[in-house]
Design a protein that fits this description.
Elements (H helix, E strand, L loop, with lengths): L11 H48 L2 E4 L3 E4 L3 H8 L6 E6 L5 E4 L19 E7 L2 E10 L8 E8 L1 H36 L1 H11 L19 H46 L6 H32 L8 E4 H18 L2 E6 L9 E4 L1 H18 L8 E9 L6 E7 L30 H11 L3 E6 L9 E7 L7
Parallel strand pairs: 9-11
Antiparallel strand pairs: 1-2, 3-4, 3-7, 5-6, 6-7, 8-10, 11-12, 12-14, 13-14
Helix pairs in contact: 1-3, 5-6, 6-9, 7-8, 8-9
Length: 483
């Protein structure tokens, strides 16, 4: 036996909290990296300015000699000033116009200069490595009159002070974040608790309701995001209320309609059990019991058909149905009853199989609708020897508009205009007729037609004649042709 894994229940609160905190925790390392880069840039600026000042100061001690040559003479106080640093080492180098070494550190790497070096007189900054240590270098090209190339002055400094300053900036920025991050998590958690509180209040209101309270929930007392959910619940409550009302009506109708045949059965049974009853009386009582049971069975079937047709909350199974084919099946089933009542029952219309005759429908309900129309016509069509009853069933289809119409016509007494709307009400029967029935056939027809998007109407079958007869028409809407 294959076990289907059950879907675990998710927490909306936990999921929202995860989606809010996860980006926060992921962005925190990125914030560290960006802060480090910014701190490095901030730490470089003041020391870079000092390097630029030193290289400009050293350039002033270059003296031009005849030749043309350059000489560099650095006073002792200036030399001591360059080396007066407890954290970093400061190095300098001075090269003449011909690249000859004049002073400083001979191994200090020269800047990369492709072609002619720049003569703009602006110091340049770069990163380099000297004696295995990373250094920050400021260099300046100094023009010498008559010389083919400028002299070069460089000042280099190790990066210890810069790293210390950058670390201090990082500490000053990041240490408060270690306290702010837990506080932010706590505030997000409290905000979520406050945000989902209306859901908890809605749950309490629903739990506090009585089992028979199907009134709609107040959509204005909930947040805007929850309003569509509340509207859906209200729609469900409305459909549930309609379904319960339909069930109650069905039970009341069933009890009312079955009361008379059941009472007749009991009376006939009592008559059959009387002392001194003859065989003829017993036979007549049994006949009446049989008729009463047939009427009770018909009433129950009609009630069940009406309940099935009114079940609007249940999804109706549909499939492509040939309306002519279903109508012909019902007509063939009704032929024995028409022959018994000496009624001319016939069909007029196209043969089954044409594409325009097909509709997405429930075949069981469609046949029930046609059956009730045919039974109603057979009940009211006259069956006298001098004037036999005629019932005609028609299906008319328009190949252009693809509209369909089902007609059931009889030559009975017809329906007055004042009665034509009321005959579709359950249990209503026209006064003055001796036809036995429950008054449910036409309401069933109307419910089934409405569920299929069709309309039901009734007119005189033969206007101006006496009797005019009745013609019931079910008009199905047009559909687009299949591609």
């Amino acid at each position: 036996m294959i076990k289907i894994p059950q879907r675990t229940q998710r927490s909306l609160f936990g999921e929202i909290l995860d989606w809010m905190l996860t980006p926060l925790l992921l962005l925190w390392p990125l914030s560290l990296a960006l802060t480090w880069l910014v701190a490095q840039n901030l730490a470089n600026k003041p020391f870079d300015r000092a390097l630029v000042y030193n290289v400009q100061a050293l350039a002033q001690f270059i003296q031009v000699m005849p030749g043309p040559r350059a000489r560099f003479s650095l006073p002792q106080p200036a030399s001591e000033l360059l080396r007066a640093d407890d954290s970093d080492n400061v190095y300098y180098q001075v090269l003449g116009a011909s690249g000859e070494f004049l002073s400083g550190e001979r191994e200090l790497p020269a800047p990369d200069a492709e072609g002619e070096p720049p003569y703009d007189g602006e110091p340049q900054l770069r990163d380099a490595e000297f004696r295995g240590l990373p250094v920050r270098v400021a260099h300046l090209w100094v023009r010498i009159d008559g010389a083919p190339r400028p002299a070069l002055v460089q000042v280099a400094e190790t990066r210890e002070k810069r790293s210390v300053l950058a670390a201090e900036i990082i500490k000053g920025v990041m240490l408060p974040q270690f306290a702010i991050l837990p506080l932010a998590v706590l505030l997000v958690w409290l905000a979520l608790l406050r945000g989902i509180k209306p859901l908890s209040e809605l749950e309490e209101r629903i739990r506090a309701r009585r089992p028979d309270d199907l009134s709609p929930l107040d959509e204005h007392a909930v947040p805007q995001e929850v309003a569509p959910l509340v509207a859906s619940v209200n729609d469900l409550l409305e459909r549930l209320e309609d379904s319960i009302a339909m069930q109650k009506r069905f039970l009341a109708d069933a009890a009312h309609q079955l009361k008379t045949p059941l009472a007749g059965l009991r009376m006939q049974a009592d008559l059959a059990q009387r002392e001194g009853s003859s065989a003829e009386d017993l036979k007549q009582s049994l006949q009446q019991i049989g008729l009463a049971s047939v009427r009770a069975t018909h009433t129950v079937n009609q009630l069940l058909a009406l309940a099935r047709a009114e079940a609007g909350g249940v999804q109706m199974a549909r499939q492509p149905c040939d309306l002519v084919q279903l109508t012909l099946e019902v007509v063939r089933e009704a032929v024995p009853r028409a022959l018994e009542r000496r009624i001319d029952l016939g069909y007029e219309g196209p043969e089954p199989g044409a594409p325009e005759l097909t509709r997405p429908a429930n075949p069981t309900l469609i046949k029930e609708m046609v059956r009730n129309l045919v039974d109603n016509a057979l009940n009211y069509a006259p069956s006298r020897p001098g004037r036999p009853g005629v019932v005609t069933v028609r299906v008319r289809g328009d190949p252009f508009s693809r509209a369909l119409a089902l007609q059931v016509e009889d030559n009975g007494p017809g329906l007055p205009l004042s009665e034509r709307a009321r005959v579709f009400q359950p249990f209503y029967r026209v006064l003055g007729t001796k036809v036995d029935g429950s008054g449910l056939g036409l309401p069933i027809v109307q419910e089934i037609a409405h569920r299929h998007g069709a309309e039901v109407g009734v007119d005189d079958a033969h206007p101006g004649h006496e009797p005019p007869g009745a013609c019931f028409t079910v008009r199905f809407p047009a559909v687009d042709p299949a591609p």
